[in-house]
Amino acid sequence: MQRLRFPKSARLLKPAEFDRVFKKRTSASDGLIIVYAAFGESEPPRLGLTVSRKCGNAVVRNRWKRSLREAFRLVQHELPRHLDLIVLPRRGAAPDVARLQNSLLKLTSKLSNKLSAKRADVKRADKEPKS
């Protein structure tokens, strides 16, 4: 049985880590959340949260954060490896852990494919002879 913990090592904590992920400009979304992703150095995926005041008052924002952390905690072992994720809730959506789990799985899979394709394009461009 795998431990379903959410230690500090599974979180994005520093502003520089958030900036690196946002700088990649690789995102996917559905009606519930927007997910930004970048390849990271650590093996397990890591999560960063950005919940703005547009989502609601402090009670609503904290509910979003708790729900997002719980959804990530439950599916983190099924997510692609070496990904740093930043999750933003959509305005007007309601936090539901089961729906968030499905969204995280679907969107991170899509983002992993996007990032792998970008990486392959960069490698291909490096190998082409320059004229």
Structure characterization notes:
It contains 3 helices and 4 strands, in the order αβββαβα. β1 and β2 form a beta hairpin. The protein has a 4-stranded mixed sheet with strand order 1-2-4-3, sandwiched between helices. The model has no long low-confidence stretch (mean pLDDT 89). 45% of the residues lie in helices and 16% in strands. α2 crosses α3. It has a single domain, classed as 2-Layer Sandwich (Ribosomal Protein S5, domain 2). It has 131 residues and is α+β, with helices and mostly antiparallel strands.
Which overall shape is indicated by the principal axes computed on the Cα atoms? globular
Q: Which architecture would the CATH scheme give at its second level?
A: 2-Layer Sandwich
Mean pLDDT: 89
Gap from first CA to last CA: 56 Å
User: Order of SSEs, N→C?
Assistant: HEEEHEH
Query: Could you tell me the strand content as a percent range?
Result: 15-25%
The count of strands amounts to 4
Q: Which residue ranges are poorly predicted, with pLDDT under 50 across at least 5 consecutive positions?
A: none
Query: How much is the radius of gyration in Å?
Result: 16 Å
CATH topology: Ribosomal Protein S5, domain 2
Biggest beta sheet summary: 4 strands, mixed
CATH class bucket: Alpha Beta
Helix segment tally:
3
- What's the number of structural domains? 1
